[in-house]
Amino acid sequence: MAKTVFILGAGASKAAGAPLMPDFLEVAENLFLTKRVEEAKDCFEAVMRAQAELSSVNAKSQLQIRNVEDVFSAFEMANTLKKLGDYTPEDIENLVKAMKTVIVNTIEKTVAFPMSSPGDISAPSEYAGFVELLSSLREETNPKSDVAVITFNYDMALDYAFYKAGIEPFYGFEDNTTSQAIPLLKLHGSVNWGECSQCGEIFPTYVKDYANPFGVIGFTRDDKTGSARFHFGCSLATQKHKKDGALALPEPVVIPPTWNKSDHYKGIAKVWIQAARELSSAENIFIIGYSLPDSDSFFRYLYALGTMGKKILKRLWVFNPDESVKEKFRRMLGPGALQSFDYPLPADKSKFYQSQILLRQLLVERMDLKDAIESALKASTPQSWYVRTI
């Protein structure tokens, strides 16, 4: 089990191009209006129509219809209740599938992978630096520190960074894995997780699974930025379940952050169990870019039950550019954890790369906390520190 656990939210993928949750549907709508998602336009139209239908809800209740987490949760609940205005149960079921397609296409049209040539596609710089930090914690510290990553993000930026660094992710499904694998536990699913069309079992695919015999992974080039766009989720239906050889269903396994995940429990319970185990053994928990939304009661229970144990928590640090998030975490934590709790960087200096600088200087270089904070505050770009560390 890991001594150091990182918990990543949408803010960690922002620099890679992924939209934050409150902006997600606006970005999706812009992709639709600019005809960049023609292959999935019917799904985008269906989601936007249903989103407009939800606007009538606000006459009698409060619902954030511009927030993808709230809208996705509403669609899932409507599917359970078989009720959404004049929609038939079949329409609602198809709407949930459409929402997953919108999520996948929006992510894969926005997350950018730097490309110097077609044969040289890098991971987004902040994730490349993060994987470098994970490797340093495992190999350069004394004593060495086992690490694990728990993430709420659906995208593949970190998965690809693992791939480029030659590190195998352990998604929590696998019965057998190498000792060198790093737990990468995606609590809300991922665009590369499929459901077997024959047996219904959920299984992860890996970046290497998408490579051709020459080791090349298909991509499209963004003419404006020169960066690459991968289509892991959009090509999920080409991937086979290794147990029975059946293809995956076209919609990936992505689930909303509502407390009621019972419909999905059997499929990804292994992932949540592994996440709880990692939390129970953690001496350090670093939460980056996760805002603890009110809709995610699930995480509150996972944290409360997962951190039960004899391990003394040395650090529970939060890095987030939203100052109000600090109070959310304070309200969630018990007296013991509050003694370990800190918001070590000013909110406006709590970017993903700045958190990495601080943690590298403190945990790997053994720098004094005050000096480590000063070093993080001086950094102006993620590239400036990442180039220095590799």
Number of strand elements: 15
Instruction: Please summarize the sheet with the most strands.
Output: 7 strands, parallel
The low-confidence parts are 384-390
Q: Which strand order do you get reading across the main beta sheet?
A: 5-6-4-1-13-14-15
Alpha-beta classification: alpha/beta
Strand fraction band? 5-15%
The first-to-last residue Cα distance is 27 Å
Cα Rg? 21 Å
Order of helices and strands: EHHHHHEEHEHEEEEEEEEHEHEHHEHHH
The count of helical stretches stands at: 14
Q: What is the overall silhouette?
A: globular
Helix share of residues? 40-55%
How many discrete structural domains? Answer: 2
How would you describe what is shown here?
Helix content is 41%, strand content 13%. With 390 residues, the protein is α/β, with parallel strands linked by helices. The protein folds into two domains: 4-18 and 117-389, no CATH class; 21-110, no CATH class. A seven-stranded parallel β-sheet has the order 5-6-4-1-13-14-15, sandwiched between helices. Helix 2 (24-33) packs across helix 5 (89-110) and helix 8 packs across helix 9. Mean pLDDT is 89; it is low at 384-390.
Strand and helix map with partners:
Layout: E1 4-8, H1 10-13, H2 24-33, H3 41-54, H4 68-81, H5 89-110, E2 115-117, E3 120-121, H6 125-139, E4 147-151, H7 157-164, E5 169-170, E6 182-186, E7 189-190, E8 193-195, E9 202-204, E10 219-221, E11 228-230, E12 253-254, H8 265-281, E13 284-288, H9 297-306, E14 315-319, H10 324-332, H11 335-338, E15 341-342, H12 352-364, H13 369-378, H14 382-389
Parallel strand pairs: 1-4, 1-13, 4-6, 5-6, 13-14, 14-15
Antiparallel strand pairs: 2-3, 7-12, 8-9, 10-11
